[in-house]
Give the backbone structure.
Amino acid sequence: MSSKHIAILGSTGSIGKNALRVIDALGPQYQIVALSAHTNVEQLAEQARQYKPQFVAITNADYEERLRKLVSDLDVEVLSGADSLIKIAELEEVDIVLSAVVGAAGLPSILAAARRGKRLAIANKEPLVIAGELLTKAAKENGSTILPVDSEHSAICQAMQSGRREEVNKIILTASGGPFRKATAEDLQNVTLEQALSHPVWEMGPKITIDSATMMNKAFEVIEAHWLFDMPVGKIEVLIHPESIVHSLVEFVDGSVIAQMGEPDMRLPIQYALTYPVRVAGINKRLRLEEIGQLTFERPNLQTFRALSLGYEVARTGGTSAVVFNAANEAAVQEFLAGKIKFVNIVELIEHCLNKHDVKTDVSLEELLEADDWARKQVEAQVHKSVRA
Ligand code: NDP
Ligand code: MG
């Protein structure tokens, strides 16, 4: 097999670090060409020392000087600023771009990689939510293969191999239900930051952990599946599965349902996206069903988890509604993590923005970014107003 040259965008995060462990185990055929972080210069410098990439990028330019000092004895080119991600995604020597950045900030570099025909391993779901049409079209036109790292979408991608695309009847996305699966709408009123950050199954970065608690994460995943698999929204279902062993399912026209199972361990979907269509031995935990004993499934509670119904509405509406949905969430989650708003305010703020927004369809990237900016400002204004009130 020929060598694969990889750029990891967001190598200091939860997915980024797991990806480095997978690549360590895959052996020397998988080589790191570029790594990036936003502020965590110490860790990025350590990674540069260990993996000897040709490029390191620090997206928050305030940290550039620190990084330069830390890697001054290494033979590595330092890039800085938000656009540095585009530069590394476009590098001639890069075959695979693994996007593990958090939020809409990952959009320009994913788009650039798609336009250059790179293999894209995408963990960073927000760009797919806000610009799924643009991204999948760019990938198709330029011969770029998009492989999902999100565990549910990796599961669907794997289950889809059991039949032809036109034989697929529907997709069933599983959800752990997060820390508040059994909560009532009233219980959610008094949720603390600490409770919201304690996910029962997955250890992830703070933003997606909050998204899992509100179930915004599952709402995003419905939209993500819609674009990745070109599936009508009406054929994408969500099922709560607290054990998180069945990562998702595909029902074919004959009624056969194919599920992909495994221990909840992101190293498996990361590896699959890197080695596809080949499978190789991995370092992920092995599934012992006899130890699990029971697998349970239940319908999601759409009254308590309003985010999920909003997600379906947004998926059906399309246009700029998804970008507003995502940007309002990013801004609101930031306010919640900073202790400025209550847990329940997150979804209230998102709904407020969606109600105020005039949806535009057939939009350019610039118009998407305008809507993104508008929604963030709306959230800021609302929070400011309620703090003063
Ligand atoms: P983390 O917060 O752990 O890591 C985020 C990474 O992106 C870090 O390297 C961080 O750098 C960098 N980063 C942060 N802000 C910016 C920015 N504005 N511009 C560029 N880079 C930035 O997140 P996760 O690894 O948990 O998640 C990454 C993505 O993968 C998200 O989109 C998430 O939804 C998705 N995902 C994650 C899963 C998981 O298990 N964690 C599962 C499925 C999907 P620094 O360290 O310097 O802050
Ligand atoms: Mg997921």
Notes: The pocket of NDP (ligand 1) is lined by residues 10-16, 37-40, 59, 100-102, 105, 123-126, 150, 202, 204-205, 207-208, 266 (CB under 6 Å). The two ends are 64 Å apart (CA to CA). The first helix runs from residue 14 to 26. The chain is about 45% helix and 15% strand.
